[in-house]
């Protein structure tokens, strides 16, 4: 009984921290004129992963620290946004693609990329997404987004991408 209460309080604290980290809705960050200047999807914000104007299409990557597969706090709202969409669209499926920077061996990076994609998937299931809606895969260091050798390039490649299936 006590562990159930602790779990409930932990979930409530997690939800409260996510609410505290929420960002300004994209439609409020513009000029503020015209329709849809309120917050959220109910005010005209497009929530369609296949529409380039949608936040679901624009914010698909979760970036990680070096040698880590812990989802950083700053990307929890991205995972929450996609989870909310997926939970209310049960027919929709995603593939979460784990990636790493070029440092380290191929096998190690494949394993790290898989742990990154699994971490995002685990967070999504905790937010109400069914496990049969999510597939995880690792590309390790084989699909870099940035091809340089600077820290900024490495940081751009340490990510998990949420890819919607048609």
Automatic annotation (TrEMBL):
Q: Biased composition, Gly residues: where in the chain?
A: 33-42
Q: Which organism is it from?
A: Pusillimonas noertemannii
| OmpA-like domain span | 51-166
Task: Give the GO cellular component terms, alphabetically.
Answer: cell outer membrane
Q: Carries keyword Cell division?
A: yes
Q: Kindly indicate where the leader peptide sits in this chain.
A: 1-19
Describe its assembly. Answer: The Tol-Pal system is composed of five core proteins: the inner membrane proteins TolA, TolQ and TolR, the periplasmic protein TolB and the outer membrane protein Pal. They form a network linking the inner and outer membranes and the peptidoglycan layer.
Q: What is its main location?
A: membrane
Entry's family note? Belongs to the Pal lipoprotein family.
Biological process, per Gene Ontology: cell division
**Localization of this protein:** Cell outer membrane
Q: Which PANTHER family does the entry link to?
A: LIPOPROTEIN YIAD-RELATED, STATOR ELEMENT OF FLAGELLAR MOTOR COMPLEX
Q: Which UniProt keywords apply?
A: Cell cycle, Cell division, Cell outer membrane, Lipoprotein, Membrane, Palmitate, Signal
Q: How does it sit in the membrane?
A: Lipid-anchor
Q: Does the keyword Cell division apply?
A: yes
Residue numbers spanned by region Disordered = 27-52
Biological function: Part of the Tol-Pal system, which plays a role in outer membrane invagination during cell division and is important for maintaining outer membrane integrity.
Spell out the coiled coil positions from the record.
none
Pfam families noted in UniProt: OmpA (PF00691)
Q: Which protein are we looking at?
A: Peptidoglycan-associated lipoprotein
